[in-house]
Each structure stands twice: as C-alpha cells, then as structure tokens.
Design a protein that fits this description.
216 residues, transmembrane, 81% helix, VTT domain-containing protein, DedA_domain, mainly alpha
Length: 216
Amino acid sequence: MEWISQMFGQYGYFVLFFGLFAESLALPFPGELAMAIAGHMASLGTFQLTSIILVSYLGAITGTVVTYMLGRRLGTPFFETYGKYFFLKPERLRQLTEWFGKYGDKLILVSYFVPGLRHFTGYVAGILKVRFGTLLLYNGIGGILWVVTYVTVGHIFGAKIEQLLHLITQYSFGAVVVLALLAGLAVLARKKKALLIQWLRARYEGLQKLFVRSAK
C-alpha cells in the first residue's frame, strides 16, 4: 500500500491510467487498491475526485479495447500457442470461452467485478468476434460502475481500505453468481413458458376446487 502512495506522489494521475491500462493487458497491477488509495487521497485534497474517476475509466477501457483488437486479429490458434505469455493458458481460454457460450456477451458487463475475468475479457471477446459496439456498451457500463465503486470506497472509508476491498471482492463475486442463476432461471422460464402457465393454471384450479369444497 505504501509503495502505491509513493508512486502517486511522484507520478500522480499517470499511475492510475497506465496501471489500469496494464492490468487490462493481464499484467500484474493492483487496480482496485490503487483506485481506493487515490479516492482516499482525494478526500485529503491531494487529487480531484472527478479526475481520478475519469483517468481510471479511460485507462481500463483503453486497455480492454487494445486487448480486444489483439484477440480479434490474432485469433484462437495464436493464443493457444502463445497465450501463456499473456497469462492466458489454453485451459483458461477454454474456460472463459465456455463462460461466454453459457452467459453470452452480457458477461462483459460484470467482468470487472469477477477476479481473474476482467484481465482477459478483451482478449476472449476479440477471439470470439463479439461486435465492437457490444463490447463498448457493456465494457463501458461495467467499467464506470467498477471505477466509481472502488474510488468511492477509498474516498469514504480511507484507512480501512484493504479490509473493505476484501469484502467487496468476496460479495461482488457472490452477487455475480446469484445474477447468473437468476438469468438462467429466466431463460428456462421463457423456453418452458407454456408448461409453466399450464402448471400454474392446474395449481390455481386445484386451490379453487379446494376452497369451494371447504366452503360447503
């Protein structure tokens, strides 16, 4: 935590832009911690809160767009062979491809809050030829929510940043799992709509008959 504060003292906003840009390339950088510390420094008057949010957002989005272009241009064969140099091993690539197949492009929307996913979202979205407009939409919405969340945590809670980041990471992942389950149930209900209506109608008629009998 101290080394990040020292970097902020030397390089200011550049730490956020290039750090989050690098993290989007799957390079090791504690993006959430850096944003939270910057948010805390804004509460002390060192930085401007709106500037922190804007610079962080641009760094994260730019990095994801670059990785998307790389994934789209280089394709699956390249990453199956050389992906390990991008920390994207064949096993992880297959897993993320399965996730996209299961949850669709909307996975991009929540990817920032899922550990081990946001670093590779751009690569995999490009490999799978996700429409660029779709990437910009979902990545843009997810990115601003992610940035605002962690900058605000640092701005409000300051000294207890690390404990709160652990809690947010833990429960945000749980929230994503719950949302995925709800989405799955919604898709299932849509596909089995006729059967569901038939089942509900039968239950309603059964309750209605039971009520009539008890009334007699």
